[in-house]
Amino acid sequence: MKLIKLDAIDSTNDFLKSLSSQDELENFTVVTAENQTKGKGQMGAKWKSETGKNLIMSVLVKDFLFDNEQVFNLSIVVSLSVLDVLKSLNIPDLCIKWPNDIMSYNKKIGGILIENTLKSDGRIVSVVGIGLNVNQTNFEELPRGSSLAVICGRTFDKNELTILIAEKIKEKTELWQNEVSVFWEDYFNSLFRKGIPMPFKNLEGNNFMGIIQGVSPVGKLQVLLEDDSVSEFEIKEIQMLY
């Protein structure tokens, strides 16, 4: 496993994407940075991180996705990999806020952004960006954010976390074909607020009540509405209010 450590970069995802386009990089190559000036989240959101305190990493994943209809499978693998590592470190009350935010209690401690590139030969090459709040303790500007240090009252080794997460992603991608149903079940069982009535907001800005029922094979959130119908939503189509 190749590990590239940077002091500062605009985006580890962009750096790794550029690197992978110019060179036949080893699968599961990892890029980390102490500071990221243009970190990205879902739907173009910015990911802000205190310099040197948190885990900022991107992992190259090849030969896993072969169909655009299967891209959500990698989200499941990566989010469960992060959860497994954090559970091994006794981080409490962990869950996944659809599609792949990492939560402890009701606080966001991490996020995942996967960017896929379709190659001319039909292969799909993925760059998995992971941001994990590790040793940052000031969240005045992020009231819904927290970190491993705040939750557990101690500091953590970011380098150890990097290796553990990258190795777990590699392990789970290799297990996927034989344990697809197990992975899906684990993902569903880990979903934040599943089965609980909660408010949502749609694209028109209207609030409504619903109950998370599951996730479709292509990654759409399935919500039971007040009229007993079940609707499916893309990430840009719905916002959880909690």
From TrEMBL:
Residue ranges annotated for the BPL/LPL catalytic domain, each copy included: 1-177
Record's keyword terms, sorted: Ligase
A cellular component term, taken from the record's GO annotations: cytoplasm
MF annotations from Gene Ontology: biotin--[biotin carboxyl-carrier protein] ligase activity
InterPro entries linked: aa-tRNA-synth_II/BPL/LPL (IPR045864), Biotin_CoA_COase_ligase (IPR004408), BPL_LPL_catalytic (IPR004143)
Domain of life: Bacteria
Entry-linked SUPFAM superfamilies: Class II aaRS and biotin synthetases
NCBIfam families: birA_ligase
Protein name (record): Biotin--[acetyl-CoA-carboxylase] ligase
